């Protein structure tokens, strides 16, 4: 049931025809070099603030090559054409991405495509990472992207504490390059006196809830982020206050800047790759399952007769299989009426998935496995319903969308208040999903998992070619806002997938 496709990289040959080998070759004079200008902006000291999307996170890890292919590093390369200075990056120690604390592994390696009898599948690269979190990097860094950070955590003292990492209260990536145990990300960023900055934060304030199938809590109305769990949705007012604090700090010295809004999770292959109906069944197995679920379906009708649920909910919850390759998985839905106390403990909140449900990418390797190795009928997603963490239901999606709309409204308002360029990454990633971006070689960069070139193997973070598209979105806004004429990045100069 798991089908991944490796990215095919065709080799292009260049054929040059010549009618007359004896004809003299005319030499063009050296072209006049193009002079690029910065407009009203000053790119001499660029600082990027954000989370994993700013750091260059890719294939579920942070590693050297990915950091070099981060969109801020691409921007800095273009800025150098018009007065931009050095761009220092807190590089990991290798290209594996794994890390240790006191010699004990705490971060996994990046993903690669491993070719198996069932086809190519994302698998963690083997080897032991040489990045030791407690080994502090010296100096200041222009790329202040901290993977895993939420908006309010960028302002939190001690977020880069090595001791805090051991206790689970601090961030291991920031711990490597924070200026002190009690430092804040935004404080270290501001200390560099940036002349130009970018901010892209807030995705994790909803993304962690979404990628974990809505298993967290929507904290809207709770203004105390210290009481939040990791996978919770941040209250929009908490987000607004945090972002305002970030921008107040970054603009205090008169720096110009640009800010990006937050993409819709439904544009990420993490939520669009696994179909809701991936279960193949023959007639005998379908009949066996229908017999097993007959009592459950009958219990729903009994509950309807007591006016405990409506006919619509009965239809929604009725489970039925048929011979074929497109049977929907069975899942737990906490938003259904609880019948376990009023009718029968066996009438748990389960139903079959519909096209409106978003199965998360890791579910592809879980559906069809056995919950009990000695019981061949205990098939996850079929006889055993998928737990809440495997599926983002429509109700959970609504919570994400409500928070997203509030966050992006805040970002737009603060961009106006602080006179910043506003990059609509929400629209850009929707365009990537709906139409893709045609390239000069005839290819099209899309959001299709593993083969589209836009996203890495974790299904959430862009591949280097996708980061180039992100960089170009920033450059378009920067040129329009500040009157610069910087050239775009060439996406084909960057890989669409790390082969190894």
Automatic annotation (TrEMBL):
Residue ranges that the Swiss-Prot or TrEMBL entry lists as coiled coil: none
PROSITE patterns: PROKAR_LIPOPROTEIN
UniProtKB keywords: Signal
Family matches, as InterPro entries: SGNH_hydro_sf (IPR036514)
Signal sequence annotation: 1-19
Name under which the protein is recorded: G-D-S-L family lipolytic protein
Species assigned in the record: Flagellimonas algicola
